[in-house]
Specification:
The protein is mainly β. It has six helices and 24 strands. The strands form six sheets. The chain has a five-stranded mixed β-sheet. Strands 6, 7, 10, 11 and 12 form a five-stranded antiparallel β-sheet that branches. A five-stranded mixed β-sheet has the order 17-24-23-19-20, with no helix packed on it. The structure holds the ligand Nc1nc2c(c(=O)[nH]1)N[C@H]1C(S)=C(S)[C@@H](COP(=O)(O)O)O[C@H]1N2 and molybdenum atom (MO).
C-alpha cells in the first residue's frame, strides 16, 4: 500500500513497508512538522485496526494485569508535549560514504520530525496495574505492536523495551494524537507509545501489549537491531550481547539549506538547519564557513522546548570562493557533536558535525 496522505515532495525511501520523509527544505519550513511531512519508518506493512475491537493488555510483573479498551483508557490522565521523533538511522547516507551499510534504508536528514503529541500517561497505567516502583532501576517495560514482521519465514510482532525508570517519566505516553488530530494509520492508529528523548525505535506503534519484566525485550528490534558497535566490527564478527543498546538520543544537527555543492552569488548567504538535544535542550549552535577553523553563533529560532528541535539560521557574508560549511550544536550539559563520523555497520546515530560545500560565484 502506498504511503497515505503525504506532501507532494515526500521522498519515498521504500514503498513497502512504507518508509519516507519530507524534502529537507520543506522539513525546516515550520517548527511543528505537519503530518503530511512527518517521516514514516515502518519495518512491516501498516496494520489496519478497528478501534472498536482494539485492546491493550498490561501483564508480566504487575499485581493487577489489565485489559483496556480505548473507552477504558479515557479515565487515565492525559499528557501532551512538543517533541521530536528521530530514527537512529537518520543521516545514514553520510556514514555510508565512508563504507557500505548493506541491508539498511539510506536515510538522508529527513528521518526526524517535530510534533505535538498527546495521549495517556504510561506511568498512570503502570501504577493502576500495581507495578513495583521500588524496582524501577531493575525492571524493564516491553511493548509489542500489532504489525507482523516477517524474518526467514517466521512472523512476529515489532517490539522493544525501555527501563521502568524511564517508563515512569510523566512525559512518556500512550499517544493517540499527533498535531491535535488522531494518529494516521502509518503513525500508529489508534495508539502508540511515545518515549520523548529516545530513538524512534522505542516508540512502538499500534501498541497492543505492555509486559513488565526483569530484562530488556528479547524482540529482534531490542536484542539485535538498534545496537551500536565500534567501527572495526563487521556484522559477521558482532557479538550481539556486546552491542550498546541504544536508548537516549544524542545531540545532533543538520544543515538544511543551501544544498551541498550549491553555487550562490556573493553577499549574504542564509544557512538554515535544525538541532536536537534528546531532552536537555539545545543551548547553542555554531557555524563555521572555513572547515572548522573559526566558529560563529547561529540564531536559535522559536521557543526553547527541551524535547523539541531548535531551528536555527546563520547569515554569512561570503566573497567569491569555495567554502566548507560546518555546524555543531551544544546541549545544556555542553555535550557537542564529533567533528568526524564514527562509522558502524548498522549506520546508527550519526551525529557528526554536518558539512556542506559551497561555491560563491558572481
Ligand atoms: N509497531 C512498530 N512500531 C514502530 C516501528 C515499526 O516498524 N513497528 N518502527 C519504529 C521506528 S524504527 C521508528 S524511527 C518510529 C517511526 O515512527 P513514525 O513512522 O511515526 O515516524 O516508529 C517506531 N515504532
Ligand atoms: Mo527508527
Amino acid at each position: 500500500m502506498p504511503i497515505q496522505g503525504k506532501h507532494p515532495t515526500f521522498r519515498v525511501v521504500e514503498e513497502n513497508p512504507p518508509n519516507g520523509g519530507a524534502s529537507i527544505e520543506t522539513l525546516v519550513e515550520q517548527p511543528i512538522t505537519p503530518v503530511d511531512r512527518f517521516f514514516v519508518r515502518s519495518h512491516a506493512p501498516t496494520p489496519i485496526i478497528d478501534a472498536a475491537s482494539y485492546w491493550l493488555t498490561v501483564e508480566g510483573a504487575v499485581k493487577k494485569p489489565l485489559m483496556l479498551t480505548l473507552a477504558d483508557l479515557v479515565h487515565f490522565p492525559r499528557v501532551s508535549l512538543t517533541a521530536v521523533l528521530q530514527c537512529a538511522g537518520n543521516r545514514r547516507v553520510e556514514m555510508q560514504e565512508i563504507a557500505p551499510i548493506p541491508d539498511e534504508l539510506i536515510w538522508d536528514r529527513e528521518a526526524v520530525s517535530s510534533g505535538k503529541w498527546s495521549g495517556y500517561s504510561l506511568a498512570a497505567v503502570l501504577r493502576t496495574a500495581g507495578v513495583d516502583e521500588s524496582a524501577a532501576d531493575r525492571l524493564h517495560v516491553a511493548f509489542e505492536g500489532l504489525d507482523q514482521i516477517e524474518k526467514q519465514g517466521a512472523f512476529f510482532p515489532y517490539g522493544s523495551s525501555i527501563p521502568l525508570s524511564k517508563a515512569l517519566d510523566p512525559l512518556v505516553m500512550l499517544a493517540d494524537t499527533l498535531n491535535d488530530a488522531p494518529l494516521t494509520p502509518d503513525h500508529g492508529y489508534p495508539l502508540r507509545l511515545f518515549v520523548p528523548g529516545y530513538i524512534g525505535a522505542r516508540s512502538v506503534k499500534w501498541v497492543a501489549r505492555i509486559i513488565v519484566q526483569d530484562a530488556p525485550s528479547e524482540n529482534y528490534y531490542q536484542a539485535r537491531a538498534y545496537k551500536l558497535f565500534p567501527p572495526n566490527i563487521q556484522p559477521e564478527d558482532a557479538d550481539w550481547e556486546q552491542g550498546l543498546m541504544l536508548g537516549e538520543l544524542s545531540v545532533n544537527s543538520a544543515i538544511a539549506t543551501p544544498q551541498d555543492r550549491a553555487i550562490v552569488p556573493p553577499g549574504e548567504v542564509l544557512i538554515k538547519g535544525y538541532a536536537i538535544s534528546g531532552g536537555r535542550g539545545v543551548a547553542r549552535v555554531d557555524v563555521s564557513t572555513d572547515a572548522g577553523v573559526t566558529w560563529k553563533q547561529a540564531a536559535l529560532l522559536g521557543d526553547d522546548l527541551p524535547y523539541a528541535w531548535r531551528l536555527w539560521e546563520y547569515r554569512a557574508d561570503l566573497r567569491e570562493g569555495d567554502y566548507h560549511i560546518m555546524a555543531r550544536a551544544w546541549d545544556t550539559a555542553a555535550n557537542t557533536q564529533p567533528e568526524q563520523i564514527i562509522w558502524n555497520f548498522k549506520g546508527y546515530m550519526n551525529n557528526a558535525c554536518p558539512r556542506i560545500r559551497l561555491q560563491v560565484k558572481g
